Amino acid sequence: MKFLHIADVHLGCTRYQLPESPRDFFDAWADVLRRYAIGGEVDFVLIAGDFFHKQSVPPETMNYAVEGLTLMRDAGIPVIAIEGNHDKRSADHEHSWLRSLSRWGYLILLEPDNIAGKIQYRQWDENERRGGYIDIGRARIFGSHWYGDTSRMAIPLIADAIRQTGREDAFRILLLHTDVEGHQTHPIPALPLESLADLRSAVDYLALGHTHMRFEIDGWVFNPGSIEITNISEYRENRGAFIVSVDEKKQISAIHTDDYRSRPFQRLSLDTDGMKTPEEFAAAFLRLIREEARHAEPGEPRPIIEVTLRGRLGFPASSLGLSELKKSAEEISGALHVRIKNTTVPIEFAALAETEIGDSREQLERRVIEGLAARDRRFENASVDLAGLILGAKRLALSDESPEGIADFIAAAVSDTKQK
């Protein structure tokens, strides 16, 4: 027996509002199906939740769903799915797009019943197009709902319900959409590891989804990770699909692959400390793009690059010229999109970071003025004198000194500074 285990396809996801994004998710998924389902001649395909990115499915996304599922139907390969948190039906509504695709014959959506607080499994009925489990060859495949933070309470009920279906000789597979403690990328919910013990005696292969990175536990729990990157923070995580073979003794061989068409991502950072002019910053930014950025390759998807600016600026933030630098970076790298995240401390606020609790008002004012002056090339060597001049003029003005007296003070202070 051989099957393909995928999860978190997220059809319809749009990154940075780029029009190419929905196509990216379809291309990755379709390439996996062609290479490893059709090309690998599997007996069935498992989708462990989050087939769609959201409950409301745009027409373009539905076209992609039908196109990919038609590939499987034409090849005679059943697709078995469950709902995830992104594509689950509303609590007050009977219908969902996954249920519709199931009733139209494009996939098999497995949903257990909840009767009087207990989970029960009915065998798949081809005429009704409904059921909680299905037999395909030696495999008995069970579905589940999205349980969220109640997963821990649901697991013992699921395990008991699976045991009650009988057929001990079957290779039992459970599809479950949840995080597992120690492997999650979401803060909550996460299924405690000890909860898996309830399933171990009832399930031979636990097919997980929800966590967008690959992991395996004890040779029977498998999470393939998302097909595509939904957020650039995930770009370093290993993700993809499991091609699973099971022998007559129920021994599992699960090979993970990420070899398929997908959009490349990259994160870079640039430290702006010590840069005193916009020209110096621009030169450093473009040098970073030329030397370290991923460049587009012929015939491959163009990369998406994020550059984070860190440190302090020696000039006003308004002089960064980020729009023009973004265009130049896209031209140099051939990237589909370059995103610049500016987390620098502008010259207007940098001096405030050096203040301490307990400083007097005059000390705060002096530090701010000295900091601003030091970051201006015209006054960087006379910041202390300039601060004294400004604060002295302020004191005279507050003491009702005449304009002439203030002017004389400024002239004398400037003369002293020049003599130094």
Distance between the termini: 88 Å
Going by CATH, the architecture of the largest domain would be 4-Layer Sandwich
Q: Tell me, what's the shape? A: elongated
By CATH reckoning, the class of the largest domain would read: Alpha Beta
Count of spatially separate domains: 3
CATH topology of the largest domain: Purple Acid Phosphatase, chain A, domain 2
Question: What can you see in these coordinates?
Answer:
By secondary structure, this protein is α/β, with parallel strands linked by helices. The chain folds into three domains: 256 residues, Purple Acid Phosphatase, chain A, domain 2 (4-Layer Sandwich), CATH 3.60.21; 84 residues, no CATH class; 65 residues, no CATH class. The chain is built from eleven helices and 19 strands. The strands form five sheets. A six-stranded mixed beta sheet has the order 4-3-2-1-15-16. Strands 7-8-9-12-14-13 form a six-stranded mixed beta sheet, with no helix packed on it. The longest helix has 18 residues. The chain starts with a strand and ends with a helix. The relative contact order is 0.09. The model has no long low-confidence stretch (mean pLDDT 88).
Task: Annotate the secondary structure layout.
Layout: E1 2-6, H1 21-38, E2 44-48, H2 59-75, E3 79-82, H3 97-103, E4 108-109, E5 113-115, E6 118-120, E7 133-136, E8 139-142, H4 151-163, E9 171-177, E10 179-180, E11 190-191, H5 196-200, E12 205-209, E13 215-217, E14 221-223, E15 241-246, E16 252-257, E17 265-271, H6 278-292, E18 304-310, H7 322-333, E19 337-342, H8 347-350, H9 361-374, H10 383-398, H11 403-419
Parallel strand pairs: 1-2, 2-3, 3-4, 8-9, 9-12, 10-11, 12-14, 17-18, 18-19
Antiparallel strand pairs: 1-15, 5-6, 7-8, 13-14, 15-16
